[in-house]
Design goal:
The complex is a heterodimer of chains A (285) and B (203). Chain A is mainly alpha-helical and 285 residues long. Helices cover 71% and strands 0% of the residues of chain A. Chain A has a domain at 89-285: MetI-like (MetI-like fold), CATH 1.10.3720.10. The chains are: A mainly alpha (285), B alpha/beta (203).
Chain lengths: 285, 203
């Protein structure tokens, strides 16, 4: 693809080929996200102690994100909030992926199972995401468990559809028929022929599920249905800072919101660039 | 051994039969040609014979016994498009040995090189892939080979090469071959006997 080559050798990453560039982007963004998670765990709760002598400070070298009305450093609060958001997102998308794989595989076993799962997907898609998360979260008693279960139970639909469609398409391939004619069992065909085609889809689907899970967790928390107020969470920070926006304390909402955006975009970039590497449709470019 | 199909009727739609009361028989070691116009149901008949299509009326049998649906099928079908007949995620050596370990002499006669074994299917040409597909299908357990336009995508020289090899192996293993093609000249060169699908269809 000559056009691709022309565009690749421009800009910051001049001198790298597309593959190196893609790997670099994946490496940097993964490092950033890992750094956020690790530092959020490293900073103990004592770093969030209240200090009324330094409340509502503007952003400064000492407090890059400013301080809030209780004198807590917003940078550390944001870090801890992002860390917990990422971990909740990771946990919820893992559960969602497992659900999606199980349901996708089930749908290939028979016509009744298939139409039941298609119906289930449509059912879940027909209810607004956030509403369902809030309902499930309340149903499971709210708090961190409620949000995790709520997010996990609502994000499997897209991946289930992909897995189901992929299996359907693969089953009509000639090499599957040939394998059957060569005397291979159904299980053998499923594991050796079909599963290798599903791995990239599942892997990518999980990573692209991350930003959704994080945003939905944050919005459920923002609306007050998620994590409890004493836990550091981006949703809590944002909803609390809303009260102080009119007082001119813009940094309380601006920096945490921007960081959330960056984290979500970082995940999206990882997903897209990994897709370039492992998606069979464009892995050879 | 004799592969027989009796009174085969098949239609993708209920009121539009493609095959109507087709009868055919193929003995071991026999090379039978099958000619028909486009859309006359040649490939469909092939799929029915090899057990790919099960929704037909009539009877396919070997020596009067139904072909078992599990285990190695003694009727092997090789397609027109070899690139569709291989899993793009498999290395060539896995594709080749999926059914049985293909012996060295067959590899040699097909001209399959060891250096191709670690390649992916998209790194080989159609003719090379078709050799792999044929070598894979011609195991000692195979009793009948259905060749559905297997050399349509290669040039005349390669066509002759491939058919010479196939006919040699088939003679050695006493396999019956059904040669499906548009080309009457090719069929008249290869086959002992020729069947026209239009004829058997209307009878």
């Amino acid at each position: 693809m000559s056009t691709a080559v022309v565009t690749v050798n421009k800009g910051v990453f001049r001198g790298f080929n597309l593959r190196q560039k893609t790997l670099l982007i994946i490496g940097f963004t993964s490092l950033l996200l890992l750094a956020i998670v690790i530092s959020s765990v490293e900073f103990g709760d004592e770093s969030l102690h209240t200090n009324f002598g330094s409340k509502n400070l503007n952003p400064s070298p000492e407090h890059p994100f400013g301080t809030d009305w209780m004198g807590r450093d917003m940078f550390i609060r944001t870090l801890k909030g992002l860390g917990s958001s990422i971990m909740i997102g990771a946990f919820a998308s893992t559960i969602s992926t497992i659900l999606a794989i199980i349901l996708g595989l089930l749908s290939s076993t028979g016509k009744i199972a298939d139409s039941f799962i298609a119906w289930l997907v449509d059912l879940f898609l027909s209810i607004p995401h956030l509403l369902l998360i809030i309902l499930i979260s309340i149903g499971f008693g709210g708090g961190a468990t409620g949000v995790i279960i709520g997010v996990a139970l609502t994000h499997w639909t897209g991946l289930t559809r992909v897995v189901r469609a992929e299996i359907k398409q693969l089953k009509t391939q000639e090499y599957i028929h040939i394998s059957r004619n060569l005397g291979k069992s159904k299980w053998w065909i499923a594991t050796k022929h079909i599963f290798p085609h599903l791995i990239p889809q599942i892997f990518l689907g999980t990573i692209l599920m991350f930003p959704h899970a994080i945003l939905h967790e944050a919005s459920a928390t923002f609306l007050g249905f998620g994590l409890s107020p004493h836990e550091p969470a981006i949703g809590i920070i944002l909803s609390e800072s809303m009260k102080y926006l009119s007082a001119g304390y813009w940094w309380l909402a601006f920096f945490p919101g921007l960081s959330l955006l960056i984290v979500v975009l970082a995940f999206d970039m990882i997903g897209e660039n990994l897709g370039k590497l492992i998606d069979p449709k464009n892995a050879h470019e | 051994m004799c592969l027989k199909c009796e009174n085969i009727s098949f239609g993708y739609k209920k009121n539009n039969l493609i095959l109507n009361n087709v009868n055919l028989s193929l003995g071991s070691g026999e090379v039978l040609g099958l000619i028909g116009d486009s859309g006359s149901g040649k490939s469909t008949l092939c799929k029915i014979l090899a057990g790919y299509e099960n929704n037909y009326q009539g009877n396919v049998s070997i020596d009067g016994k139904a072909i078992p649906s599990k285990g190695y099928n003694p009727v092997q079908l090789v397609f027109q498009h070899p690139e569709k007949a291989v899993n793009p995620k498999w290395k060539m050596k896995d594709i080749l040995n999926e059914g049985h370990i293909v012996p060295q002499d067959i590899l040699d006669s097909f001209g399959i090189k060891k250096s191709w074994f670690n390649r992916w299917p998209n790194e080989l040409s159609g003719g090379e892939l078709q050799r792999f597909a044929l070598a894979r299908a011609l195991s000692p357990e195979t009793k009948f080979l259905i060749a559905d336009e297997i050399t349509t995508m290669v040039d005349a020289i390669t066509q002759a090469q491939i058919w010479n090899i196939v006919l040699d192996i088939v003679k050695e293993l006493n396999i019956g071959v059904l040669v499906v093609s548009h080309e009457k000249k090719l069929i008249s060169k290869l086959c002992h006997d020729v069947v026209y699908l239009d004829d058997i269809n209307t009878v």
